[in-house]
Structures are given as structure tokens and as C-alpha cells.
Amino acid sequence: MPLIELQDVSFSYGKTPAIDQLSLTVEAGEWVTIVGPNGSGKSTLAKLLIGLLKTQQGTIQVAGETLDETTVQGIREKIGIIFQNPDNQFVGVTVKDDIAFGLENLSVPYEEMLKRIDHYSKAVGMDAYLDKEPSQLSGGQKQRVAIAGTLAMKPELIIFDEATSMLDPTGRQAMLEIMHALKASGKTILSITHDLKEALPADRVLVMHEGRLLKSGTPRDILRDEPLLKKARLTLLEPFKYMNQLAKKKQLTDEWEALLWQSAFTL
Questions:
Q1: What is the pTM of this model?
Q2: Per residue in 226-247, pLDDT tens?
Q3: How many domains does the chain have?
């Protein structure tokens, strides 16, 4: 059974469709990246999944449970979300307070809370900053704190909604390394981005355009598909341009393909 399953989900802002009869699944333990330009419905999808918006058509199931007014609170406990702007996520006076915030809402016992704060602050490399105030942290460090607070609540799925878009290259790389570690630990990841480089390490890539799913496939299938990306108003990464050019000339060897694929990770 998929961890997440959408069946014919639609949502509009007024007369403008944001999600249009969307069906998709996310399996437990899978890293799925959703790509698309601004306005493709990616962030609306994230809000629908956590019940901030209500579907106007279709159904959403999380761990076999249908999302509705009676189940939304329990389902939110299964899903953690990291948003785009780290400043909008920091709710505590200190790092320690911020990680504790969600645990207090769940009435986690104090001793257990301290254990989780210690464990997950170390997991994201922020244990030395527990007494720091938000103003003393970089954007990347604030995002790490948001991840620690989310992990401490032990969700089954973590959504990264354009979570690296406001970070510098160092912060972006650190975030991707954390995603790799989460995947290795068995967590289910749904990452939402317009940056195709961030889709490279995913298990599966979904391409969205105007609220619809254009195609689902492996990164190798999707990121080389120039007509598909053009339709979705996304730009083919340079290494894959060269790869496709060599393939057209029947000059693409296994060695060149491996080299160009690897070079995409270092852009």
C-alpha cells in the first residue's frame, strides 16, 4: 500500500485551477522529487497533503487513511514539512525552544523531549547551537533547526517545499546531504523544487505543469527528456544537452554517459 495516494484531486483558487485531476502515489521509503515551474501547482499540492487546503474533488490517502475533517489532525502528525523561508518557520526564542515546540504540542513527556532534542539536534549538526537565538543563525542553520524539529516529531513523510531556494550554495549542499541521510535511514521524502539539479539523487521524478502530472520516471528518464522539459517550461541541464547531442550522432558511449551524468551533480 502506498504511503501517499492521490486519486483525481482538483483544487482551484477562484476560477483558476491549481491542481487538475491529479493522481499520484508515493511509496514508503521512497524519495520522490516533484519538479515544475512557478504556478505548476507544486506548493498547492503540499498544502493539500497536510490539510491546509481542502480538496474540491478527489481523495487523498495517507497510510491508508482518507484525509478529511475527522482525520486531518492525526494525518498531520504523520507528515513533516520544511518550507521555503526559514525565517517563517522559527517559532522558538532559542534553537532548543524551537525543536521543543512541536513536542510540547504533542504532550511528549519532558525526559523524552530532552532525549529527542539532543538526538535530532546532533543528527543535523546543530547541537552546539541549542542556546542560540534565531538572529545568530544563517538561513541554512535555521533550515537545519526546522528539520530537527520535524524529525523529533517522528513523521512518516517529510516534505521539502522549495526548502533550498533561499539558501546559498553551501547551505543548499548541506540540505541535500541531510536528505541523503534521511533516505538512508528509511524516511520517505517528497521534495518539491523548480531546480532540476535537486532531482538528480531522487528515486523518482514527477513533472508537473498547470496542475497536471505530465510524466513520472527515474531521474535518468526524465532529466534527458528535452521535449518534456520544454513543455513544462524547464531547462535541460547542460550535461544532458551534450549527452543528447552525442546520442543523436551515435557517439554516446557508456563512459561518456557516466561522465556527463556525474558532472551534473557538480554544477
A1: 0.89
A2: 999 999 999 999 999 999 999 9
A3: 3
